[in-house]
Design a protein that fits this description.
The protein is α/β, with parallel strands linked by helices and 251 residues long. Helix content is 41%, strand content 16%. The structure holds 2-phosphoglycolic acid.
């Protein structure tokens, strides 16, 4: 028996409509109570319109609620956006920031990421900070320099906001939804770089991995000692699959 603690982020993306999300939770209501295990906590991130109802439906379980993104603005004329304050009011404990499906180019997007982090911290929502190289950077062996650039920016923003409370999710863009995961060696190398930067900012970073995590890939991924959790996309929409991943981690 291990005593490592894991966090699982179930990022439902836009796989479910409002009714579909509600019926998933209603059908699995009883089993959901037993889903988080002693050493595995679960954070459910449905899309915005379902957050409030999902919060009610998971109330009897120890599952926590997270959002998939938030606006970089506090309030004002921003059609279609959702502010950090609403996330706090709804009862979100977490919010994913900088997921690669929310932007095209990190360099253009980075200023917005920073503003989002600051607002979340002000509203006591813990950011789940995504970072990782894209396919081109991966192929040109720029993984380390990309991670260094991104982690430096994320950690310095946390520092400026006088907090170390965040989860870090290494998400190589090319691995998301592809069925391919990095070799354990490469993953360890990338995580070491990220950890080292966090440590230089006095941040004891909790590291997660995201990108094609499933009940099959988790067996290899679990061997990586630097990891304390996983961000699941597609696999988290299948209850049996999610349950399998949790129980494999709990073994
Ligand atoms: P996936 O998504 O599990 O469907 O690959 C993961 C992610 O977006 O991080």
């Amino acid at each position: 028996m291990h005593n490592k603690k894991y966090s699982i982020i179930a990022n439902w993306k836009m796989y479910f409509s409002f009714n579909q999300a509600i019926s998933w939770l209603t059908i699995n209501k009883e089993s959901l109570k037993d889903l988080p295990q002693k050493d595995v906590s679960l954070i459910l991130c449905p899309s915005f319109e379902s957050l409030s109802t999902c919060k009610t439906l998971i109330a009897e379980s120890s599952i926590l609620l997270g959002a998939q993104d938030c606006s970089e603005h506090e309030s004002g004329p921003f059609t279609g956006q959702v502010c950090a304050q609403s996330l706090q009011e709804i009862g979100c404990c977490y919010c994913i920031i900088g997921h690669s499906e929310t932007y095209e180019n990190w360099d253009v997007y980075q200023e917005r990421i920073l503003k989002k982090i600051t607002l979340l911290i002000q509203h006591k929502v813990i950011p789940i900070l995504c970072f990782g190289e894209n396919k081109q950077e991966h192929e040109h062996k720029k993984t380390e320099s990309t991670i260094t650039k991104q982690m430096t920016l994320l950690c310095s923003t946390l520092k400026e906001n006088k907090t170390t409370k965040a989860l870090f999710a290494y998400e190589p863009r090319w691995a998301i939804g592809s069925g391919n995961i990095p070799a354990n060696n490469d993953l360890e190398k990338a995580l070491k770089v990220a950890k080292m930067i966090a440590t230089s900012y006095d941040i004891d970073a909790t590291m997660l991995y995201g990108g094609s995590v499933s009940s099959e890939t988790i067996i290899e991924l679990k061997k990586i000692t630097l990891l304390n959790g996983f961000l699941l996309g597609k696999a988290s929409t299948d209850f049996q699959e999610l349950k399998k991943v949790v129980s494999l981690l709990n073994e």
